[in-house]
Amino acid sequence: MTDIGRRRKLGALAGVCIAGALLPGITLGAENVDVLLSLMVAALVVMLLTQLVYVGPSARVPTPALLAFGLAGFVQDSLIWWLLSWLGGKFAELEVEGFGTILLAGLITRVSILAFSLIGTEPTAD
Length: 126
Prior knowledge:
Layout: H1 3-22, E1 26-27, H2 32-52, H3 63-91, E2 95-96, H4 99-118
Helix pairs in contact: 1-2, 1-4, 2-3, 3-4
C-alpha cells in the first residue's frame, strides 16, 4: 500500500470521527461500546468504498479539473453517508437524520481526506 493510500484512509477515519462528534443529526449510540462499534462500522465502510472507487487525480492537474475531482469526491462521500444512514440501524446503532446532515458529513469527510492526502512528503523519483 502506498503512503498516499494510508493517508487517505487516515483522512477517512478522521472525517468520520469529526462528523460523528460535531453534527447533531448523527447518533452513534447510547453507551461507549455502541459509540465505538458505530464509529468502527462507519469508518470501515467509508475507508473501503473510498479505496474501491478512487476519485482524484494521479498527477498535478489544473484548478478546474481539481474542483471537478473535489465535487465528485463530495458526491461520493455524501452517497456513502446516505448508505450509512440506511445500514446503520442494521449493523450498529448509527443513525443519520436528514439530508442536510448527510451533505455536511460528506463535506467534512472529503475535506478531511483531502487534508490528510496533502500532509506529508511527496515521493520523489530517484
